[in-house]
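Subject: ER membrane protein complex subunit 2

B.,
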Amino acid sequence: MYNSSIVQITPSLASQISRQAPDILRNTTPVKYLDFLIANESSDLWFTYEGLVLTCLRTGDEKSANTSLQRLIDRFGADNERVMALAGLYKEAVTRDDGELYSILEEYDSILLRDPTNMPVSKRRITLLTSLGRSSDAISSLLKLLDSSPNDTEAWAELSDLYVAQGMYPQAIFALEELLLIHARLGEILYISGSIAKIGMEKVMTDSLKSFCRSIELCDNYLRGYYGLKIVTDRLLALQDQGNLSSEPGLSFSFQKLKDLNEVAVTKLSEIIRRSARNELGWQGYKMTELIAAKEILNHRSVSQSVTR
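Prediction pasted inline below.
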């Protein structure tokens, strides 16, 4: 549950990054030699060190991982929450038996006893419980975490996986439904925010699009996600037509990509409306208000195309 984007990179890419680690560390200045009063500090450097800790541990380069971790400790202190979690992860990776892992678990318990709100350490503790085969304890800890942080999508996803592993399928479905709602709601709020923003609208709209894409990635027949995908791509396509979108890489999607995503939304919404109307097995349960809204947006598209012709 810690920095999953790093964990998900391919083994070949992880190996490539790890091989470059010694050179990166040689070519960057340790914090004790930086004068923060005269030098501009780049956050990219610290994200690089964090990524190196994770990647080098994955490939077995404990020396580079330790050097990167030490530079983070020198900069932010050993009591920084993210650094504490990284330090715990490092200890877990270099241990040789379960006895040492249980000692680390006790360290996590001690930290959380002093500060129950330490989210990074709490997540590391849950991951360690899972790896030790204590799934029930991991589930209980996740539920406690979600009580204080109900919008933590990573925690809901982890909870669903644990429920599946335990054969608790209704609970797993509930956890995934919560995850879906968060992604779709986030997309909706970002869309509304982008609609009224005078500055930074493009990035907000792009983030909205990514949230809707994530929701339909999690559930292929999620009407609310496809509806959001349709309205946000409509908006971004209109802005591109007006020449109001940046060409900066990563800030927006290409015109063709937006058009393709828009067509995906139209096709899927049409299928959902058609098959739910027939009451086909697996296509029931959609809210009537959502089906009506989907029909309206598709009808609006048809009218717009007729006018254009």
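Residues 141 and 147 are 10 Å apart (CA to CA).

T.
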